[in-house]
Amino acid sequence: MKKILEIIWIVLIALTLFAYLLGYLKYIDSALVSILLLTTFIKGALVSDHFMGLKSVDSKYRVVPIIWLSIVLSLIAIAYYL
Fold first, then answer.
1. Among positive and negative, which fits the CA dihedral 69, 74, 75, 77?
2. Second label for 36, Cα 20 to 30 Å away, from 3, 19, 21, 26?
3. Model's pTM, two decimal places?
4. Mapping DSSP to helix (H, G, I), strand (E, B) and coil, where does residue 82 land?
C-alpha cells in the first residue's frame, strides 16, 4: 500500500510540474487548457480515492467528490471558452 501511495504522489507531482511549466512558459492555448483541466480532474480523483481513503468505501461516497470536481471544472471550462 505504501508503494502505491508513493507512486501516486510522484504522478501528482509530475502533473503539477507539467501545469506549472506550461504557465511559466506562457504556452497556453485552447487545447492545452483542456489537457490541464483533464489533468486536474485526474489529480482530484487520485487524491479523493487514495489520500482521502475513499477507494475502499461504498461508491455513493466516492461519487460525491467526483461530481463536485466535474461541476467545478466544467464551470471553469465554460468561463474560459466563452
1. positive
2. 3
3. 0.86
4. coil
Residue, of 28 and 78, whose pLDDT is higher:
78
Nearest CA to 40 among 80, 1, 82? Answer: 80
d(CA 39, CA 19): 8
| Domains held by the chain: number | 1
Q: Residue 5 is which amino acid?
A: L
Domain that residue 54 falls in: 2-81
List, in sequence order, the alpha helices (H) in the chain: 2-24, 30-46, 59-81
CA distance 8 to 68: 21
Q: Cβ-count burial of 45 within 10 angstroms (0-12 exposed, 13-18 middle, 19+ buried)?
A: middle
pLDDT mean across residues, the chain: 91
Indicate if the pLDDT at residue 70 is higher than 90. Answer: yes
